[in-house]
TrEMBL record, chain A:
<keyword id="KW-0029">Amino-acid transport</keyword>
<dbReference type="GO" id="GO:0022857">
    <property type="term" value="F:transmembrane transporter activity"/>
</dbReference>
<feature type="transmembrane region" description="Helical">
    <location>
        <begin position="265"/>
        <end position="284"/>
    </location>
</feature>
<feature type="transmembrane region" description="Helical">
    <location>
        <begin position="41"/>
        <end position="60"/>
    </location>
</feature>
<dbReference type="InterPro" id="IPR052157">
    <property type="entry name" value="BCAA_transport_permease"/>
</dbReference>
<feature type="transmembrane region" description="Helical">
    <location>
        <begin position="12"/>
        <end position="34"/>
    </location>
</feature>
<feature type="transmembrane region" description="Helical">
    <location>
        <begin position="148"/>
        <end position="167"/>
    </location>
</feature>
From TrEMBL, chain B:
<feature type="transmembrane region" description="Helical">
    <location>
        <begin position="94"/>
        <end position="113"/>
    </location>
</feature>
<dbReference type="GO" id="GO:0015658">
    <property type="term" value="F:branched-chain amino acid transmembrane transporter activity"/>
</dbReference>
<feature type="transmembrane region" description="Helical">
    <location>
        <begin position="48"/>
        <end position="74"/>
    </location>
</feature>
<dbReference type="InterPro" id="IPR001851">
    <property type="entry name" value="ABC_transp_permease"/>
</dbReference>
<dbReference type="GO" id="GO:0005886">
    <property type="term" value="C:plasma membrane"/>
</dbReference>
<feature type="transmembrane region" description="Helical">
    <location>
        <begin position="20"/>
        <end position="41"/>
    </location>
</feature>
<keyword id="KW-1003">Cell membrane</keyword>
From TrEMBL, chain C:
<feature type="signal peptide">
    <location>
        <begin position="1"/>
        <end position="22"/>
    </location>
</feature>
<dbReference type="InterPro" id="IPR028081">
    <property type="entry name" value="Leu-bd"/>
</dbReference>
<dbReference type="InterPro" id="IPR028082">
    <property type="entry name" value="Peripla_BP_I"/>
</dbReference>
<keyword id="KW-0732">Signal</keyword>
<feature type="domain" description="Leucine-binding protein">
    <location>
        <begin position="28"/>
        <end position="365"/>
    </location>
</feature>
<protein>
    <submittedName>
        <fullName>Branched-chain amino acid transport system substrate-binding protein</fullName>
    </submittedName>
</protein>
<dbReference type="Pfam" id="PF13458">
    <property type="entry name" value="Peripla_BP_6"/>
</dbReference>
Length: 294, 325, 408
């Protein structure tokens, strides 16, 4: 029965790894969905902000000795602030133009950031030390799961849950949801919509940076780490349907698992499977699985 | 009454005369250029100009931003390369035709999937589809994957003219790009183009007027994809290889930049924009600034979007219209 | 010595057809250094390789027979596209005579094609694919340092001999990785082992976990890494995290550089056996040269950086001896002269362009054995050139007369 035993272990192992990738997809597509919901902006700089998160964590530890745990809080705040500035001074002036212009603006910014870091720190990766507590692995029977990877799943899910809670159950979230539905009306109620927009973009960027810090000890920190990931996340967002927050998270995790599954069955297709799913969803449900209609 | 009808007529005539003069001047420059500049560099500009014009047909005249046009450039290149390498009896023009046909078919496929959505959704769907195409080319054995496809023979045009000669190759490429450009020009100025224009300006209105908007958009998309494929096919014959660079999403971004810089929705804009970008690559590539290319292009992108949405040609046109009536 | 003379004679006979101009074109010798200057392979050749090349130029006083030596360089970003375009323009516009460096095998195969078309010369010192002097050989380039045949032959054979007879191969998905995969498989099979699984990953991958897991579940005793530089380093680090070595499997780096061992540290790499084409501490001459190099770059040279110096020096010497920089004249002279310098003392270039010399099987020292930051290897044994490299009798190179080679 070895013929059957080995694939089972391999299958479970790959699904576990798929879940880890899925956690990143979920975090990133969540940020994209939140930004898109209120601003109607496709944030092409999202991948660069993820990369920025990892790099800021790396530089803080190198130059100021700031450890992982502090970075996990500090870095999203810093990148979030930079996101607020970006929204206020670059995105707002073109907010009344065709939304395609904001997509192109963030694309240009992503190019700049990626190239700047390549020139400053080279394009090969830099290692970020795994926090002391998470050195070592736990034996799950079918695989050795490094502790840090287990933590990534827990942390990502916790943050997704918290974000969902804030948006669905708090007053701030209520404003946000209402602003998404009808900004004019909200303005009429005396709510400072421009400020809410700035804050929302900053929050989205902070989520990307948080994902970046989580990724730093896992993958080598490199300027291009976000660029290729982002395209996959875009496909995830199209599959999930742009509006939905729950859709972003669920689809992100599901796509990670599907990718893991493909790695066992037919590894060559692992890179294309998400796009293939996207094509199928588009044929059957043009607005995405959780979309309400455009 | 007479003045009001006469005036536009003379205006129209003088505008046409000016366009003709400009066109002839540009053609004259293109004809002597290879004696002054490096022909391969010029051919690169021509291919990218055609690519950008094809892209602009969609963005500028239908209002659809495709973020996946690299897929067509890459397909044109790979299929042409494959045909010319595999079947040694094939003449280059047939190879290019094959590549163009393949890109057109792919365009039909993409179009059917993406055309139902607009704006940002359309951009993301085309991007994702192009990425899928990229991964297929990465793994398909015939493309050579990361190694690229090398040693594509230039061959003899119609079996007669040896294209190994850079000058012969240049005039062949010029002829192709000129025909492509004229085709786009014809499309835009035809009744078909007028309908596209109506769709761009007000889609619900065009629907209510009884136009089958989806069919018009699809046809425009397919034409655009086909011409982008033609550009890729020609480029492969010039450089004698095809590689993943042409199918990568960076290329889709770069063609947007070319068009934006030159002027979206102007016929000459993409030509000017692509010449500038290719020239920039060329000049900076060998210098210390070469590694800063991404920053420079990104900055141009940001500036264009913030301050310069009409692009160079759009700006000049506005200036001419205002001051040189 | 009989064996070495026969192929040489054949090569000479083939080359006499080429016309000889006994002068140096444009009164300048123009060298283009094409390499990955910023990416995954930066540490192997990169800026350090350019420094090594400049050292060779300086050793000639910056000129040969009154003709100035001009060096230019470009970053190919490991893209065959960029590499081929740069080379074409260097030749068309800059009248470059020779292209040196050449890292990614994919770039090299694209570039040497152009060199053959235009009759210029290439000094390949960093690429590893053994196909470069096999099915892709041209009369316009020579291949220095290692190749995948020699590396697989050296390392894999030794490991199978020690009992590591079932293999899982993880290869970089492009020309180099493919060649290494094929050469390892052939070596393992020939030594009586078997290959149970194969996987390929894209160049400069960030995440090796799923590949490591695949290899782990394959049940192979040895996981062969047919990749290089940062890919090898990342794969080894990931394998450690997933407890690969705890479950009794071992890793075999088939293409390990001193810069990788330095980056990973002795703690992680001690006891690893690998093949190297050169080691800075191999003899008196190499130590002296390495010291010069270290003073300029603050790093010890990798084997390919040493190879760049050696090949450039050999090339310039051939121009000096013949008074010409015409590719075929220089090649003829290079093939006729043995290579004897800080790199090797018994090298010779075969008619397929392969520089054949003795390589070494080394073992990484334990932290206790090491006496300094760069004191990393102890030499297990020397691998004679004729044993290390693919024999001409198996060659598919168009320049090799197989009938003639078969007899030797």
């Amino acid at each position: 029965m070895t013929l059957f035993d080995i694939p089972t272990a391999a299958l479970l192992g790959q699904l576990m790894l798929g879940l880890i990738n899925g956690a990143f997809y979920a975090l990133l597509s969540l940020g994209l969905a939140i930004i898109f919901g209120l601003l109607k902006v496709i944030n092409f700089a999202h991948g660069a902000q993820y990369m920025l998160g990892a790099f800021v964590a790396l530089l803080l530890s190198r130059h100021f000795g700031i450890d992982y745990w502090a970075a996990l809080i500090l870095v999203p705040v810093l990148v979030g602030l930079s996101g607020c500035l970006l929204e206020r001074f670059l995105l707002r002036p073109i907010a009344n133009q065709n939304h395609l212009y904001s997509l192109l603006l963030t694309f240009g910014l992503a190019l700049i950031m990626q190239n700047l870091f390549t020139n400053l720190y080279g394009s090969s990766g830099n290692a970020y030390p795994t926090p002391e507590v998470f050195r070592g692995a736990v034996n799950l029977g079918f695989m050795h799961l490094p502790l840090y990877r287990a933590w990534v799943i827990v942390a990502a899910l916790a943050v997704c849950l918290a974000a969902w809670f804030v948006i669905e159950k708090t007053r701030l979230g209520a404003y946000l949801r209402a602003g998404t539905e009808n900004p004019q009306l909200m303005q009429g109620f005396g709510i400072n919509i421009p400020f809410l927009i700035t804050l929302t973009y900053g929050f989205g960027a902070a989520l990307a940076a948080f994902a970046g810090v989580l990724a730093a000890p896992l993958y080598s920190v490199s300027p291009t780490m976000g660029a290729n990931l982002l395209i996959v996340v875009f496909a995830v967002v199209v599959i999930g349907g742009m509006g939905s927050i729950v859709g972003a998270v669920v689809t992100g995790l599901a796509m990670g698992l599907i990718e893991g599954l493909t790695k066992v069955i037919y590894p060559q297709a692992a890179t294309t499977v998400i796009f293939a799913v996207m094509v199928m969803v588009l044929l059957l449900k043009p607005n995405g699985l959780f979309g309400k209609g455009a | 009454m007479t003045t009001s009808t006469l005036y536009p007529d003379t205006l129209q005539a003088s505008r046409q005369r000016r366009q003709l003069q400009l066109g002839l001047a540009l053609l004259a420059i293109a004809l002597v250029a290879p004696f002054v500049a490096y022909p391969i560099f010029l051919m690169k500009i021509l291919c990218f100009a055609l690519f950008a014009c094809a892209f602009n047909l969609l963005l500028g005249y239908v209002g659809l931003l495709s973020f996946g046009h690299a897929a067509f450039l890459g397909t044109g290149g790979y299929i042409t390369g494959f045909l010319l390498t595999r079947y040694s009896g094939l003449t280059p023009e047939l190879g290019i035709l094959g590549g163009t046909a393949a890109a057109t078919l792919l365009g039909l496929l993409f179009g059917l999937l993406a055309i139902r959505r607009q704006g940002i959704y359309f951009a993301m769907i085309t991007l994702a589809l192009a990425q899928m195409t990229f991964f297929i080319y990465l793994q398909a054995p015939f493309t050579g994957g990361e190694n690229g496809m090398h040693g594509v023979p230039r061959g003899k045009l119609l079996g007669l003219i040896d294209l190994k000669n850079d000058l012969a190759m240049y005039y062949f490429v010029l002829a192709i790009c000129l025909s492509g450009y004229l085709l786009i020009r014809r499309t835009v100025n035809s009744p078909f183009g007028q309908v596209l224009y109506a769709i761009r300006e007000n889609e619900p209105r065009a629907i209510s007027l009884g136009y089958n908007v989806a069919a018009y958009k699809l046809l425009a998309f397919v034409i655009s994809a086909g011409i982008a494929g033609l550009a890729g096919a020609t480029k492969t014959v010039v450089f004698q290889f095809a590689s993943l660079t042409d199918a990568h999403w960076h290329m889709s971004g770069e063609v947007i930049l070319m068009t934006l810089l030159g002027g979206v929705g102007t016929l000459l804009g993409p030509v000017v924009g692509s010449s500038l970008v290719v020239w920039l690559h060329h000049v900076l590539g060998g210098s210390v600034l070469g590694s800063w290319m991404g920053t420079i292009l990104g900055t141009i992108f940001v500036l264009c979007v913030l301050l310069f949405r009409d692009g160079l040609v759009g700006y000049v046109q506005k200036f001419v219209r205002r001051n040189l009536r | 010595m009989k064996t070495t003379i026969k192929p040489l004679v054949a090569a000479l006979a083939m080359i006499t057809a080429a016309g000889a101009h006994a002068e140096i074109s444009d009164k300048e010798i123009r060298i283009g250094y094409l390499a990955d200057m910023s990416g995954a392979y930066r540490d192997l050749g990169g800026p350090g390789g350019l420094e090594a090349l400049n050292m060779a130029v300086e050793d000639f006083g910056g000129q040969v027979n009154g003709a100035k030596i001009v060096v230019r360089s470009a970053d190919d970003r490991n893209s065959p596209d960029v590499g081929a375009n740069t080379t074409r323009e260097w030749i068309d516009q800059g009248k470059v005579d020779v292209v040196a460096g050449l890292v990614s095998s994919a770039v090299t195969i694209a570039v040497t094609r152009i060199l053959e078309d235009t009759n210029r010369f290439g000094l390949v010192s960093i690429s590893a694919s053994s196909a470069i002097t096999n099915e892709y050989c041209t009369p316009n380039h020579v291949h220095w340092v290692y190749d995948t045949y020699a590396m697989a032959n050296g390392t894999a054979k030794a490991i199978v001999k020690e009992g590591g007879d079932s293999w899982s191969i993880l290869a970089a998905d492009y020309a180099f990785g493919h060649a290494m995969e094929a050469d390892v498989e052939r070596t393992v099979l020939a030594a009586g082992g078997k290959v149970v699984s194969k996987a390929r990953h894209p160049l400069a991958s960030s995440d090796f976990s799923s590949y490591i897991l695949q290899a782990q579940s394959s049940g192979a005793k040895v996981i062969g890494l047919a990749n290089a530089a940062s890919d090898t380093v990342n794969a080894i680090t990931t394998a450690k995290q997933f407890g690969l070595t705890d479950s009794g499997q071992r890793l075999a780096g088939l293409m390990v550089f001193i810069s990788d061992v330095h980056a990973l540290g002795l703690e992680a790499t001690q006891g690893m056996q690998l093949t190297t084409g050169w080691y800075w501490d191999q003899d008196e001459e190499s130590r002296a040269w390495a010291k010069r190099f270290f003073e300029r770059t603050k790093r010890m040279p990798t084997m390919v950086q040493a190879g760049i110096y050696s090949s450039t020096r050999h090339y310039l010497q051939a121009i000096k001896d013949t008074g010409s920089d015409e590719a075929q004249v220089v090649r003829k002279q290079m093939l006729a002269t043995p290579v004897n310098d800080m790199f090797t003392n018994n090298g010779r270039i075969r008619e397929d362009g392969r520089m054949v010399y003795d390589m070494s099987l080394v073992q990484v020292k334990t932290p206790a054995e090491s006496t300094g930051e760069w004191d990393l290897y102890k030499i297990v044994r020397s691998i004679p050139g004729d044993e290390a490299f693919r024999p001409l009798s198996e060659s598919k190179c168009k320049l090799v007369d197989t009938k003639l080679a078969g007899k030797s």
